[in-house]
Amino acid sequence: MNLLKNNIKLKALLLLSAFPSLSYAGSCVLGTSVKATSGALSIAVDPRVAIGDVLGYRYSKGYSGTTLVVGCTGSSPYRSASILTASTTVTGAYETGIAGVGVIIGDLYNTAMTVPYTLSLGPNALTPWGPSGEVRLTYVKTGPITPGTMGSKLYANYYLNNSVFSTLTVSSLTILQKSCLVDVNSQYQTINMGSPSRSEFNGVGSTAASSERNFNVVMQCEADNIPVQVSFDPVGTSSGNGMIAIDSGTDAASGVAVEVMDANRNPLVFSKATTYHNAAEKTITIPLIAHYKQTASTITPGAANAAMTFTISQN
Questions:
Q1: For residues 12 and 60, is the Cβ–Cβ distance under 8 A?
Q2: Are 199 and 206 contacting, i.e. CB atoms less than 8 angstroms apart?
Q3: pLDDT (tens digit, 9 = 90+) per residue, 97-110?
Q4: Does position 21 have pLDDT exceeding 70, yes or no?
């Protein structure tokens, strides 16, 4: 059973501004002025992740539901662009100013696209027009990370008829090292659960004793007693707490699943965070148990592989 791929869950903290309402950008009349503000943005990261890996997602606040353009009299060129330095290691990313941390910036008009983006918009598309969603920022690793803080910084300009009609600014960005990192020996684990016989199972809900394995997830932590949250998620589908469906394939077994439990033999509740590191522990061990469990009246022999991920979050 393959285990453990780390991710980071974080919150958005952005400052956006737009030019005053009812001003003109070429042949268009601009509408609502968006001036959303927020506090400082802080991201706790694992500096050992690979270049290109996502460190966290953020969304702007304040655009959705507004009318940025009242109307236009003709077709208007639209484009988005960043004033940040383009990354040389991650395509589409820009350097934030903190070593090793880049950002991929979403477009304002088409939130499925990223900066830079260009298109020509007819008057019907802009009469009126307001964003259907917020701008997404995807923070990525672009090189060796050095924790630090960057003050207020303009990330992107949005243009209509070659005039800036809105800007995107992040008020501040702080990169911290996570208080707890998964031990290198726990980061990627393969648990060999053997080859139990069908005769070990005696009906739906029964388990194969020979397949039961104990294993641990270990975290190495700083002596700062900053809490971290740990959660587990199945790779693929799950039929309930602790249950991970077997990988599909032409030679895959059927009628069984992998069940993962905590040290008290309670099935794991996936996607539910548990808090650790409240007492400045330097090492934290999370014991787990896995075995095969019958899920259907008939069992078909075959490969029975499953996987789950392990996530450390820090606010």
A1: yes
A2: no
A3: 999 999 999 999 99
A4: no
